Amino acid sequence: MGMVDEEDEMFVNFIVFFVTDIVNFTSNLKCQAFVCINSLVVR
User: Fold this and answer.
1) pTM of this structure
2) d(C-alpha 5, C-alpha 24), whole Å
3) According to the model, what pLDDT value does residue 6 have?
4) Is 27 helix (H, G, I), strand (E, B) or coil?
5) pLDDT per residue over 1-43, tens digit each?
């Protein structure tokens, strides 16, 4: 119990990094889409 290989730790870190990257990417897309819609509405 509690024994974690370095490879497993690296894998977990990679998954966390990957998920965080995707979340940041999608939130950026939402922001850009919101700005585009706002600029279209203003015109």
Assistant:
1) 0.57
2) 29
3) 84
4) helix
5) 567 688 899 999 999 999 999 999 999 999 898 888 888 887 7
Cα–Cα distance, 19 to 41 (Å, whole number): 33
Nearest to 23 by CA among 15, 35, 34: 15
Whose structure tokens read 């290989």?
A: 5
Dist CA 4 CA 11 (whole Å):
11
Place of tokens 């894998």: 11
CA distance 35 to 30: 9
